[in-house]
Design a protein that fits this description.
single chain; 172 residues; alpha+beta; 3 strands; rod-shaped
Length: 172
């Protein structure tokens, strides 16, 4: 199993301290504290370094061994390669994050669309009354007021263009 999972032959690991195979040696102390406290550990997840330098995730089940007098004599355990499971969990987390971002963008689009429609309704009223006033003033007074109204209508048309852009965004 050591050879299949870590790439080392059994004679390469015999007599070697196991802490040397941990990707993060401080995790060995966490493991030892857990097994000393409970007498056993189940599904202790840890990263080990393979012979080729790659990392592998292991799930370790282990228990302490005792002699007839109750003295601790060793540890017996089984490690299972869970690298594929960990990779799938990471991919799932990335997909969930992407989905959440998409949902946020959809909500922003919906909000922008609602605001744009409301603003467009208000703007339509402003433009309508400005055009009516422009028609009335064209018949009677100076062109100065027509210039002011022309500026109002031009600004309103720019606002309408902006609304169309917001609505295009919200549809995406």
């Amino acid at each position: 199993s050591v050879e299949n999972i870590l790439g080392y032959s059994p004679h390469e690991v015999m007599g070697q301290p196991i802490v040397g195979y941990y990707s993060f040696p401080e995790e060995r102390n966490v493991f030892l504290e857990a097994i000393q406290k409970e007498g056993a550990v189940e599904n202790f997840q840890v990263q080990f370094r393979r012979k080729d330098g790659a990392t592998v995730w292991l799930s370790v089940n282990a228990r302490l061994l005792f002699d007839d007098q109750g003295r601790q004599t060793g540890t017996h355990g089984i490690a299972r390669d869970i690298s594929k499971i960990k990779k799938a969990e990471e991919e799932k987390a990335i997909l969930e994050k992407s989905l959440l971002q998409s949902q946020k963008m959809e909500a922003i689009g919906t909000l922008a669309g609602g605001i744009a429609h409301d603003f467009n309704n208000i703007l339509a009223g402003i433009m309508g009354y400005a055009e009516l006033l422009q028609l009335d003033l064209a018949r009677s007074t100076t062109s100065r007021f027509n210039d002011y109204l022309g500026n109002i209508l031009a600004a309103a048309e720019r606002a309408q263009h902006l609304i169309r852009q917001i609505l295009a965004f919200s549809r995406q």
